[in-house]
């Protein structure tokens, strides 16, 4: 007579009886799930890296309401002699064609000179006049509009989102192709700037689904190897497909869009769901011959429910800890993974059991599953880990300490790991775009834009003394080595005077300055160049655009210090500036802030993840030893990974910064299952018996679940984006390191703490093969 069923077993029995109803319900829910999943957009714009509630992000958006927004790009028309008549005529034709591209505003030294000519056709005489005009002042060269071997066309793209950007860039390419037919007097037209970086990231990320194809093929092969059943494979794939569709559907239904690190979201859900299914089904296939399939299925589900639920909960809440980050993709990833794992938990304990029954997935007694080799390992491992317990533990501690030094450094000997924020480094180094950007860096003032937002009383921006103070401030910025170019309202006024034949110098006399201020008020309603820099009507706000080569946080910090130092000096020299205030805004400062927040994100989210997982262990495990030791393999893997990163020169970036939370949040599943069954075994007898029981029940599942985790994330090692490629390589290695610690350092530490000896020691048969392989 069977013992009475527990409430949990009764619940699973009801699910199994209602299997067709459950399948029908999921079929209905999948329709909107798939619909919204297909609506998820891809937006890798680097301004997506900052959360919309960040004060600096809000300030930048407020600035853009006054002066407009856009993405800046540069076209470099390269030639041996950029002022040759044929070159000048061709660049002029290209710029005229660009003027008709929607959402694109071109500007160049030629278009500025064209305003001084009644008709400009690029004749030899006009080309000579243009050369005298361009080289007769430092204003145009300092802004990067020409150089020894190029003429530049600056482009402002007034675009919103990836679709408009792609359309604008396609229009630019079409305009260039139409205006520059072969043979061309130009050596090359080089396209660089943030829009091209963003578009490259978007196009590259559209190939991300190819990475999941490799994972699916890996799952198919591993499933057939493990269970040797096509019906089991179908049950796995249907369950995984449902988890993925509903999880990504949630993202689409809430208006989310994928960013640079978002492919980790579906992959994390898939590998966690697959590992959980392996734990469940491996317990199911180990059916004793005398137990009916239906009864054993309920037992297997109930037996693995606590461990699987605890592991999914700890993983989900651990990723939810990333919500504290001020870096938008990381925050979104954490929340989406948490929601996706909650959906996964429901699906694997409802849909999968229903599919097991409907598809009649076989157990071990019906079809021989692979894994007999593991029994030999179970016989050998406890005694071996006892014999080498001290070398194993000491080696693990030494490697962990080395990894800690690699991450945090050692004062006076080893510097901490660097943090990479240069967006250009996020694209493949073997691409033409990357090579072009690196090649033209010495030729242009820079491609990083920082705006100095200057605000004052009503009408203050047309006061002669204020304008003179702003001119001095801008000149000081121009002379600073941290600054490539500085463009503001006074440089536009100087350029207008130069175009009128009055020279480019700032007026010296008070009368001339007063006249220039009056001219500003008159010209402002009609002059687009001035409107870009001075607030119309109120005349209370202006800005200076700083172009620099700053790409990392240290460079931005130095630039910001230089800006504030020169402003303080300008205020001392020009008291009229005292009522004015400045604020640095733009994508440059936001990227610097993001990089500054990367390490706090690592530390804070990781600490919160550790706390959540440890709290889970407090609930699941009664043993104090288990609570303290359960995270040893994950912590070992994480610290060793940082050592590997240091050796391979992998930097901390927006993707690799997540490696610690990802490894801990995902690999702790193994430790939960390990210690859950270890405690079961301890109730039966010695540490040796408990280790054998643990390895027999969950060891094989831990082994293959780790292969699934590693194989899933290793798919990212095929990505064309360096951060994702580095993350995939590190994650795959991290899971393997964690499993290695599961089967070596962890049993060794248990032997040391328990002070017990293997059962065979007393009989002198340590590590001798067992004749009987009956399970405890």
Q: Can you walk me through this structure?
A:
- The C terminus is likely disordered.
- It contains 29 helices and eleven strands.
- With 776 residues, it is α+β, with helices and mostly antiparallel strands.
- The chain folds into four domains: 202 residues, Up-down Bundle (Multidrug efflux transporter AcrB transmembrane fold), CATH 1.20.1640.10; 135 residues, no CATH class; 201 residues, Multidrug efflux transporter AcrB transmembrane domain (Multidrug efflux transporter AcrB transmembrane fold, Up-down Bundle); 158 residues, no CATH class.
- Helix 1 crosses helix 13, helix 11 runs antiparallel to helix 12 and helix 26 packs parallel to helix 28.
- The longest helix is centred in the last third of the chain and has 34 residues.
- The chain starts with 6 loop residues before the first helix and ends in a 22-residue tail after the last helix.
- Strands 2, 3, 4, 5 and 6 form a five-stranded antiparallel β-sheet that branches. It has a four-stranded antiparallel β-sheet with strand order 9-10-8-11, with helices on both faces.
Number of DSSP helical runs: 29
Shape designation? elongated
Look up the CATH topology of the largest domain.
Answer: Multidrug efflux transporter AcrB transmembrane fold
Distance between the termini: 22 Å
Q: Please tell me the CATH architecture of the largest domain by its name.
A: Up-down Bundle
Unreliable stretches: 762-776
């Amino acid at each position: 007579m069977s013992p009475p069923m527990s409430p949990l077993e009764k619940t699973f029995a009801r699910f199994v009886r209602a299997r067709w109803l459950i399948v029908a319900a999921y079929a209905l829910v999948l329709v909107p799930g798939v619909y919204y999943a297909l609506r998820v957009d891809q937006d890798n714009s680097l301004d997506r890296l900052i959360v919309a509630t960040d004060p600096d992000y809000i300030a930048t958006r407020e600035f853009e309401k006054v002066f407009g927004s856009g993405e800046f790009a540069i076209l470099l028309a390269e030639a041996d002699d950029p002022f040759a008549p044929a070159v000048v005529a061709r660049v002029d034709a290209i710029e005229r064609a660009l003027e008709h591209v929607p959402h694109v505003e071109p500007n160049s030294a030629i278009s500025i000179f064209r305003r001084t000519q009644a008709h400009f056709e690029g004749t030899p005489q006009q080309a000579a006049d243009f050369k005298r005009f361009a080289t007769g002042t430092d204003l145009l060269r300092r802004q990067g509009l020409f150089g020894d071997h190029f003429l530049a066309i600056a482009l402002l793209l007034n675009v919103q989102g990836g679709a408009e950007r792609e359309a604008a860039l396609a229009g630019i390419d079409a305009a260039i192709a139409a205006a520059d037919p072969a043979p061309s007097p130009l050596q090359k037209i080089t396209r660089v700037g943030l829009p091209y970086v963003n578009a490259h990231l978007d196009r590259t990320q559209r190939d991300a689904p190819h990475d999941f194809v490799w994972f699916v093929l890996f799952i198919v092969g591993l499933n057939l190897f493990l269970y040797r059943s096509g019906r089991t494979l179908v049950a796995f794939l249907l369950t995984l497909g449902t988890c993925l569709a509903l999880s990504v559907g949630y993202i689409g239904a809430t208006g989310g869009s994928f960013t640079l690190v978002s492919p980790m979201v579906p992959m994390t859900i898939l590998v966690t769901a697959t590992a959980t299914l392996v734990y469940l089904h491996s317990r199911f296939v180990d059916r004793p011959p005398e137990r009916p399939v239906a009864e054993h299925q309920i037992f297997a589900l109930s037996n693995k429910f606590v461990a699987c639920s605890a592991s999914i909960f700890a993983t989900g809440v651990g990723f939810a800890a990333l919500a504290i980050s001020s870096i938008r993709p990381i925050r979104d990833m954490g929340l989406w993974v948490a929601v996706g794992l909650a959906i996964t938990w429901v699906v694997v304990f409802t849909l999968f059991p229903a599919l097991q029954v409907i598809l009649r997935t076989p157990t071990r007694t019906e079809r021989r599953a692979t894994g007999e080799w593991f029994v030999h390992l179970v016989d050998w491992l406890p005694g071996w880990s006892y014999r080498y317990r001290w070398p194993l533990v000491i080696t693990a501690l030494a490697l962990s300490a080395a990894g800690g030094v690699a991450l945090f450094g050692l004062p006076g000997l080893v510097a901490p790991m660097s943090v990479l924020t240069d967006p250009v480094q996020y694209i493949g180094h073997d691409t033409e775009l990357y090579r072009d950007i690196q090649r033209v860096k010495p030729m242009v003032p820079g491609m990083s834009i920082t705006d100095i937002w200057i605000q004052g009383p009503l009408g203050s921006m047309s006061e002669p003394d204020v304008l003179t103070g702003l001119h001095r401030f801008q000149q000081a910025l121009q002379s600073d080595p941290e600054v490539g170019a500085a463009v503001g309202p006074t440089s536009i006024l100087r350029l207008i005077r130069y175009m009128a034949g009055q020279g480019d110098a700032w007026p010296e006399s008070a009368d001339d300055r007063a006249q220039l201020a009056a001219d500003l008020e008159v010209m402002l309603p009609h002059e687009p160049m001035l409107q870009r820099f001075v607030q119309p009507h109120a005349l209370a706000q202006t800005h200076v655009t700083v172009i620099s080569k700053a790409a990392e946080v240290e460079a931005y910090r130095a630039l910001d210090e230089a800006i504030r130092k020169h402003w303080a000096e300008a205020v001392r020299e020009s008291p009229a500036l005292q009522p004015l205030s400045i604020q640095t805004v733009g994508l440059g400062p936001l990227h610097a802030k993001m990089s500054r927040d990367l390490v706090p994100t690592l530390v804070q989210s990781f600490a919160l993840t550790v706390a959540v997982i440890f709290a889970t262990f407090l609930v699941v495990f009664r043993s104090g030893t288990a609570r303290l030791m359960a995270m040893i393999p994950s912590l070992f893997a994480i610290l060793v990974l940082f050592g590997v990163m240091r050796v391979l020169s992998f930097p901390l970036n927006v993707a690799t910064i997540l490696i610690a939370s990802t490894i801990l949040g995902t690999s702790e599943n193994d430790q939960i299952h390990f210690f859950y069954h270890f405690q079961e075994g301890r109730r039966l007898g010695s540490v040796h018996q408990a280790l054998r029981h643990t390895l027999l029940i969950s060891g094989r599942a831990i082994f293959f679940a780790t292969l699934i985790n590693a194989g899933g994330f290793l798919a990212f090692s095929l990505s064309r984006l360096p951060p994702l490629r580095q993350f995939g390589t590190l994650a795959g290695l991290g899971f393997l390191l964690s499993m290695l610690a599961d089967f070596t350092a962890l049993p060794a530490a248990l032997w040391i703490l328990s002070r017990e000896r293997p059962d065979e020691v007393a009989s002198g048969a340590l590590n001798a093969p067992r004749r009987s392989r009956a399970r405890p």
